[in-house]
């Protein structure tokens, strides 16, 4: 083992301390666990860490990153272990509520006060509130949209800006196929990218009233006709073979990189895909801004949902039970206007702190921020809103539909059964 002069000095200090009875001052380390992000977002976190550590001598902050699915799979076990992080990344929703109920998160209500609390919108803090108590701090909001490769769309003769209805979108998929271009990149191995299609179609069919009714367990819940019809419309897309070859073998990160490599016209994904498609592309640069655009998910004819209903979520940081006091102090720094503006300017996320949206520079994010602010109903990611177990069933149902191994009726019933058994 390599034992340098610095380590010798530390060992000597410890020896002197043990002899003299002098206490040894150890650093306090705040551990954060985060789903993987592009380097530009990591740079923001590192800058915030530097500021915090400079103002708090002896306190350190360490962030560990895991690929999206690995993060979700490892998190539950970690939160029940003796090696719990102090702060975890969270998509809020039902999963957060379940974590609160299992006693693994910390109530930070008394600490979120004054100007810091006032810097957030009530709705964003509400996403991290369970039974009137706050368990986390919001980071950003998101909208899932179709990212469009303008060059490939033109090659296929697709007027993507004219896509307003589901039938319009299906027609665009057919045009891409006819032109020999892959219509959609999806990354089905992780399943949740497929759930975006199924969820959005549910929202467009059921609308606000239908979604809220299903969550309340009224009538047939998620097995009601509107949800079955959403599955039928998803099947209309699947029947066109719209995805990349071997789509169930690619992860989100791989699919995003291939979209960045220019291998498909569309990618249904949230705002984070701007950076991810660049980071995971072969060139590391992805699609140039001038060749990239976004469109909203289309409406379905006769559906109760509106074009102005949005689908996405509020992301942020949940504080783990028994976390060190410095954890919340660091979140005060990280969620300050300065770093929210940096995130906005770099396209890392759509900021949540009041006034930070003025730093949005790219048209994609300005459009998304406008959509969310004017939303007639914003539906959180359904695999998160339903909680871990029912959410997993939802992802499975979407994947099964995409592979043609279940029917729209059975898929809807499986989700309802899981939701009713929670």
Automatic annotation (TrEMBL):
Signal peptide start and end residues: 1-26
Keywords assigned by UniProt, alphabetized: Signal
Pfam families listed in its UniProt record: SBP_bac_1 (PF01547)
Annotated protein name in UniProt: Raffinose/stachyose/melibiose transport system substrate-binding protein
Biological classification of the source: Bacteria, Pseudomonadati, Pseudomonadota, Betaproteobacteria, Burkholderiales
Subcellular location: Periplasm
UniProt GO cellular component terms: periplasmic space
Coiled coil regions in record: none
């Amino acid at each position: 083992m390599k034992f340098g002069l610095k380590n010798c000095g530390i060992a000597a200090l410890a020896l002197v301390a043990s002899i003299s009875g002098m206490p040894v001052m150890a650093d306090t380390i705040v551990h954060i666990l985060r789903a993987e992000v592009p380097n530009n977002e990591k740079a923001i976190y590192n800058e915030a860490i530097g500021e915090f550590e400079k103002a708090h001598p002896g306190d350190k902050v360490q962030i560990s990153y895991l690929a999206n699915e690995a993060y979700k799979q490892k998190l539950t076990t970690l939160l029940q272990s003796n090696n719990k992080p102090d702060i975890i990344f969270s998509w809020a929703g039902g999963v957060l509520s379940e974590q609160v109920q299992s006693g693994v998160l910390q109530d930070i209500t008394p600490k979120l006060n004054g100007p810091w609390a006032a810097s957030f919108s009530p709705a964003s803090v509400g996403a991290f509130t369970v039974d009137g108590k706050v368990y986390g701090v919001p980071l950003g909001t998101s909208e899932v949209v179709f990212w469009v490769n303008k060059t490939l769309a033109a090659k296929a003769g697709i007027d993507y800006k004219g896509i307003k209805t589901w039938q319009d979108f299906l027609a665009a998929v057919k045009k891409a196929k006819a032109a020999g271009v892959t219509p959609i990149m999806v990354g089905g191995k992780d399943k949740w990218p497929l759930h975006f299609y199924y969820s959005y179609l549910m929202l467009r069919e059921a609308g606000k009233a239908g979604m809220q009714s299903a969550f309340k367990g009224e009538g047939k819940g998620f097995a009601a006709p509107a949800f079955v019809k959403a599955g039928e419309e998803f099947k209309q897309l699947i029947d066109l073979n719209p995805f990349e070859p071997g789509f169930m073998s690619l992860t989100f990160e791989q699919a995003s990189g291939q979209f960045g490599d220019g291998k498909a016209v569309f990618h249904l994904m949230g705002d984070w895909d701007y950076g991810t498609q660049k980071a995971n592309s072969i060139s590391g640069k992805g699609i140039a801004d001038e060749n990239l655009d976004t469109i909203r998910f289309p409406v379905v004819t006769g559906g109760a949902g509106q074009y102005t209903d949005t689908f996405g979520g509020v992301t942020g940081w949940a504080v783990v039970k028994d976390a060190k006091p410095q954890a919340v102090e660091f979140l005060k720094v990280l969620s300050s206007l300065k770093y929210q503006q940096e995130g906005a300017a770099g396209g890392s996320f759509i900021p949540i702190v009041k006034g930070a949206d003025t730093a949005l520079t790219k048209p994609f994010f300005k459009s998304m921020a406008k959509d969310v602010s004017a939303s007639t109903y914003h539906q959180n990611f359904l695999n998160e809103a339903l909680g871990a177990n029912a959410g997993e069933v939802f992802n499975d149902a979407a994947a099964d539909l995409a592979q043609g191994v279940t029917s729209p009726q059975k898929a809807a019933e499986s989700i309802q059964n899981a939701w009713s058994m929670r």
